[in-house]
Fold this sequence. Notes:
The structure is a single chain. Strands 1, 2, 3, 4, 5 and 6 form a 6-stranded mixed beta sheet that branches. This protein has helices spanning about 5-15, 15-25, 40-55, 60-65, 75-100, 105-130, 135-145, 195-210, 235-240, 245-255, 275-280, 285-290; strands at about 1-5, 145-155, 160-175, 180-185, 220-225, 230-235. It is built from 12 helices and 6 strands. The two termini are about 35 Å apart. A hairpin with a 5-residue loop joins strand 2 and strand 3. The longest helix is centred in the middle third of the chain and has 29 residues, at about 105-130. The site of iron/sulfur cluster has 12 residues, from helix 2, helix 11 and helix 12.
Amino acid sequence: MMTFSVTQVRVAFECPRLFYVNYHFRGQTLFVPTDYSKGLGTLFYQLAEKLIYTAKHNSQFTKLFLPESEQLDVEEITLRIQQLFYKLVFFPIIKKDIQQNNSKLIHIYYQVWQGIIQLIGHWVTLLIKNRSFCQPDVLLKKTFTAEEIRLEHIFTLPNENQIKLIGRLDSLIYDFQKRRYCVVEYKTYQPSDLAAQLAQVALYSYMLKKTKSIATPVNSSVQQVLPTFQEYYYAWEDLENTVYQLIPHKLQQMQNWIKWQQNTLNPPPTAIKSHLCEICPQQATCQQFFIEQL
Ligand code: SF4
């Protein structure tokens, strides 16, 4: 059975040719600004994960939420969590590079820290709301349900073929007020094609609900942390009749696109949004590879 990753589906939504090039030859697929620092995304994901782990396992974080919900102040707790995380995790990591005056890495750390600060503020708002529904000793563990969940689901296509889809979601949180789980995907840059990001996060919510047999609907959130915090939030109901129904058709297209041979008719189409070509990491490869078809 053929296997695709959720990331490949996102790329196929962005540009079928980029999906083809990456499927056969690998290489970069991110549409990021030209001044985007390499390695920033990976470092951010690692630190966001460490932050959640530390907060769940260190009682100093729990103590911040001891008062009742109405007595908790977002700004004050955000500042305290920033200080704790800086002292316990962030500074020990960056210390050596600061001492060696590694300016390139220091610049990346600075950007990552700005992203982490934004994320902490957003999380604290949710934690304070959740505090009305649960005790401080379980608040963090029940809000940050899981990180890095690996998912796998078999889709049946319109042509009756089956495709296995695999993926790994960044984070799963629980909102007590909404009584719902929400899958979260972090972005360290402004997405160039929101529809494609939506497809990715929607797939995670769909696969999570199917594979983990979650009874309630699962919402989806894309959290852009840089250059400024922006959340794109989608309720399950918004996706149910749109994205979820598009997926089997898209997988069938992907199955057909990868079979295409150079110098034959009907190559995979170009990106619908032509501005993507200007910032495409595979522009040169694409122009050389598909030149015969122009
Ligand atoms: S250059 Fe444009 S058409 Fe070619 S792979 Fe990149 S985004 Fe797609």
